[in-house]
Amino acid sequence: MTACLYTRLDTVDDAVQCLASAGEDGHVIAGGVALGILMNERLVKPVHLLDISRIDALKRIEVTAEGVLSIGALATHQEVLTSAAVAATCPLLIEMSSEIACERIRNRGTIGGSICLGDPQGDPPVALLALDAVVRAAGPQGLRDIPIRTFFQDVYTTALQSDEILQEIRIPRIPDGGGMAYHKFSARRAMDYATTVSAAVQLACDPDDGRIINAGLGLGGVGVTPVWSKAIADGLLNATPCPEIFAWMRKMVHEELSPIGDHLYSADYKSHVAAVILRRATERAYNRAVAGSDRR
Amino acid sequence: MASDKKQPDGQKFALESAKQQALWQREFQQIVADVQGQALGPNWTANSSPRNIGLPLPRNDVLYKVRGTARYAANISMDGMLYGRFVRSQEPHARILNIDVSAATQAPGVHAILTADEIPQDRLLVGTHDNDTPILAKDRVRYVGEPIVAIVAESVEQAQQACDLVEVEYESLPVIFTPEEAIIVGAYQIDAEAEGNIITEHRHDVGDVDAAFAAADIVLENTFTTEPIDHCFLEAQAGLAFVDSGGTLNLLVSTQYPHFHHEQLARVTGLPMEKIRVIQTVVGGAFGGKIDDTIECASCLLALKTSRPVSMTLTREEVFIATTKRHRLKFRQKLAATKEGHLTALELDILCDGGAYRSYSRVVAGRCVVHAGMPYRFPNLRVHFMTAFTNHVPSGSMRSFGVVKMAFALESHLTELAAKIGISPIEIRKRNGFVDGDVISTGQVLQDVGLLKTLAEIEPIYERRKRELAGVHGQGQMNPGRKRGLGVACLGYGIGYSGIRNPSTARLAVSADGFVTAFCGTPDIGTGSDMALTQIAAEALDIDLGRLRVVSGDSTKTDDSGPTSASRTTYFSGNAVCLASEDFKRQFCTAVAEKTGCLPAQVRIDNDRVIVQNEPLAFEQACRLIADDVDAIVGYGKFDPDIEIDISTYQGNAYPTYTYGTHLVEIEVDEELGSVDVVRYWAAHDGGVIVNPIGAEGQVEGGIVQGLGMALWEKIVRQEGFIVNPHYRDYLLPGAMDIPGELSVWFVETYDRTGPFGAKGLAEASIIPTPGAIAGAISNAVGVWPRGIPMESEKILELMGHYSADAAKSATVKGQPREPR
Question: I want to staple A9 with a disulfide (CB 3.0 to 4.6 A). Which of A15, B75, B309, B649 is the partner?
Answer without folding.
Answer: A15
